[in-house]
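Dock NAI; give full complex structure.
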Amino acid sequence: MAKDPVRVLVTGAAGQIGYALVPMIARGIMLGADQPVILHMLDIPPAAEALNGVKMELIDAAFPLLKGIVATTDVAEACKDVNIAVMVGGFPRKEGMERKDVMSKNVSIYKAQASALEANAAKDVKVLVVANPANTNALILKEFAPSIPEKNISCLTRLDHNRALGQIAERLDIPVSSVKNVIIWGNHSSSQYPDVYHAVIDGDKPVREAVADDAWLDGEFIKTVQQRGAAIIKARKLSSALSAASSACDHIRDWVLGTPEGTWVSMGVYSDGSYNVPAGLIYSFPVTCSKGVWSIVQDLPINEFSRKKLDATAEELVEEKQLAYTCINE
Ligand SMILES: NC(=O)C1=CN([C@@H]2O[C@H](COP(=O)(O)OP(=O)(O)OC[C@H]3O[C@@H](n4cnc5c(N)ncnc54)[C@H](O)[C@@H]3O)[C@@H](O)[C@H]2O)C=CC1
Ligand SMILES: O=C([O-])CC(=O)C(=O)O
């Protein structure tokens, strides 16, 4: 029997990530090739015409799984009964900016949209925040939508996770599918810690052994992943879009349909104090997912090198949280 359609909201749908993401969702890349979807697309009034153009193209592409389109500039209408919300709407950073430089513009959007989701979305809506500063926007959304369970609010660090897999695969000249269990700890910012101490290739060979170059792994590799967003902006004069859209699909797909046996992924989720990360932050952890629920992978040994890096990125998130509240109260 055909499945009932799932309603998926994409905010900022007329923007560049939106333009890459909505066809992926309509093709079944996010939720599976047998899962019909109804796309809800939100943008702001100045982008209404462009949003309508995206809607026209979705119609023209005749996606068999796409059972309906809501394209609107009304946030309440956009959020109505949605089961999944991918929050991309906001202002991207430009060359020379840090992600927190877009804080003042974006946190106020996330406060307002929290209320709209709380009032209109399905009670078990799963939320993924993509817009930067992603962790702090997600935290603000959580705080201003208290009836949405905290387990249902997350932010995107899967792009960083995929970037780390990609760098290891390039270095070893192996397919990216042979590498797994890297970890992105902390903030989706240049303070994030891409950790390969537990990563393996071909099922069980430690990445550290395969790479056999600790100086590279502890230096250039970490820096490359931390700075990859800036490198893309420098090259394209625009921030990452196709890789962000694809990683957002990976994030939701694994969350809803489950992670493969023996594999974890990185998600920005509400800290419960695991690994001595302060509770009350949205922090990227290694997680496994089953039946629509994520769980933080527990008891991985953390050495002194890693501990310092986990703490430094947590400190930045504490500062961002304070800054976000200053912006909101101004
Ligand atoms: N977490 C991650 O890994 C990544 C996050 N990003 C972030 O994603 C966000 C979107 O990036 P792009 O699509 O490249 O930007 P973009 O500027 O091309 O598109 C953003 C869209 O959001 C819309 N928008 C602005 N305010 C809105 C509001 N209040 N409600 C609904 N829509 C609104 C804009 O009109 C625009 O169409 C940026 O904040 C960017 O920094 C980008 C890449 C990766
Ligand atoms: O760097 C940016 O501003 C966009 C982004 O978050 C990324 O590509 O990781």
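Observed: The chain has two domains: 6-155, 157-320.
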